[in-house]
Design goal:
1 helix
C-alpha cells in the first residue's frame, strides 16, 4: 500500500514538474518574442536616426552652397558698385 502511494506521489510530482516546465517554456517563448520585437524597434529607431542625420547633412550642404553663392553675389555687387562709383567720378 505504501509503495502504491509513493508511486502515485512520484507520478503527481512528475506531472507537476512537466506542467511547470511547459509554463517556463511558454514564458521563454514570450520573452524571446518581446526581445525580438524590441530589437526590431531599436533597429527602426537607429535607421530613422541615420536617415535624419543624412538629411541634416544634405540640408547643411545646401545651406553652405547658398551662403557661398550669396557671399559671391555680395562681392560682385560690391565690385560692381565700386566700378560704377569710379566711372561716375571719371564722368565728372
Amino acid at each position: 500500500m505504501e509503495s502504491k502511494a509513493l508511486r502515485k506521489k512520484a507520478q503527481d510530482d512528475a506531472r507537476l514538474l512537466q506542467n511547470r516546465i511547459q509554463l517556463l517554456l511558454l514564458e521563454e517563448k514570450k520573452a524571446l518574442k518581446k526581445i525580438e520585437e524590441t530589437e526590431k524597434k531599436a533597429k527602426e529607431i537607429q535607421d530613422l536616426k541615420q536617415r535624419n542625420f543624412e538629411m541634416q547633412m544634405r540640408k547643411e550642404e545646401v545651406l553652405n552652397c547658398i551662403r557661398s553663392r550669396l557671399m559671391e553675389f555680395r562681392w560682385r555687387e560690391k565690385d560692381r558698385k565700386n566700378l560704377k562709383d569710379k566711372i561716375d567720378i571719371i564722368d565728372f
